[in-house]
UniProtKB/TrEMBL annotation:
This is TatD DNase family protein. Belongs to the metallo-dependent hydrolases superfamily. SUPFAM superfamilies: Metallo-dependent hydrolases (SSF51556). Pfam families: TatD_DNase. Residues 259-283 are annotated as: Disordered. It comes from Actinoplanes teichomyceticus. The keyword Metal-binding applies. Keywords: Hydrolase, Metal-binding. GO terms for molecular function: hydrolase activity, acting on ester bonds; metal ion binding.
Length: 283
């Protein structure tokens, strides 16, 4: 089983995690910029953080044969902190980096006017830089958060196929499916979404435009839950090819729209993954 985890915060994980992930089949990851816990004292600290996402963390991942990519943005939670707003002006210089495959995480946390503004500005950046966008949805009042998110995405004029709306569940998946955006799911040990619930969602909504991630971060989480979801799919009667579509080909296709992931280096599998045409291929 080859796995591309499309949303995982490796900064908060250990080398033991990298080792276990590699052994479980994880060959590529995308690490979105997010809130790192401790409130920041100044916007300059984002430069160090973004540098580590395009420098140090890919180096760490490469030691385990894992290809590391990043998404860069001012995240919604810190969009509310006046100390952090200046970081918006740092974002564009990172969007030119080769390992940056999307603008993200953007979207809503508490749905404040500040978040509205920062979300819209960064969707414009995605359009300007011709990059996909990774959109976080709030954990509280999720249904309202997702419907407002879809409104903002529509108003921005970004192509829906370039947007993944993440952290979905049974209640919110339908609206995102109908919008033409990609659907992201974060599988956690005891909250949000489990492998067995994920299998039911795949049964109900199909495999197309589906992205499954472990999101593993500072909280209780598990970087192997992508693998566990693949195993749950097989146990439920999905084929190896179905699992490969969800856990590998879908994230390759979505982030491939940036034109940047050099996945041939991490894809020893089918020859069809050689060359860039497949990265931009149809759906
Ligand atoms: Zn995240």
């Amino acid at each position: 089983m080859r796995i591309f985890d499309p949303h995982i915060h490796m900064t908060s994980r250990t080398t033991d995690d990298y080792e276990r992930m590699a052994a479980a089949g994880v060959q590529a990851v995308v690490e979105p910029a997010f809130w790192v816990g401790q409130p920041r004292t100044n916007a300059g600290s984002f430069a160090d953080y973004f540098d580590s996402l395009v420098g140090w963390e890919p180096f760490r991942a490469a030691q385990f044969g894992i290809r590391h990519h990043a998404t860069i943005a001012l995240n919604p939670k810190e969009a509310n902190d006046p100390h952090c707003r200046e970081a918006l002006s740092l974002v564009p210089r990172y969007l030119d980096k080769d390992s940056v495959v999307a603008v993200g995480e953007i979207g809503y946390d508490a749905m404040t006017p500040e978040e509205d503004e920062v979300f819209a500005v960064q969707l414009r950046l995605a359009v300007e830089y011709a990059l996909p966008a990774l959109v976080h949805t709030p954990h509280r009042d999720k249904a309202r958060g997702v419907s407002r998110t879809l409104d903002v995405v529509r108003e921005s004029g970004i192509e829906p196929g370039l947007v993944v709306v993440d952290h979905l569940n049974e209640v919110t998946v339908g609206a995102v499916h109908d919008s033409g955006c990609w659907m992201g799911f974060s599988i956690y040990p005891d909250t949000k979404m489990s492998p067995s619930r994920m299998v039911e969602i795949l049964r109900g909504h199909g495999l197309h435009r589906m992205l499954v991630n472990s999101a593993a971060d500072w909280g209780r989480s598990d970087p192997l839950l992508t693998r566990r979801t693949g195993e749950a799919m097989l146990a439920a009667g999905f084929t190896d090819d179905d699992v490969d579509q969800v856990l590998w080909r879908n994230p390759v296709e979505f982030y491939g729209q940036s034109g940047r992931p050099h996945l041939t280096a991490t894809a020893p599998g089918p020859a069809s993954f050689q060359g860039s045409s497949i990265l931009r291929g149809g759906s």
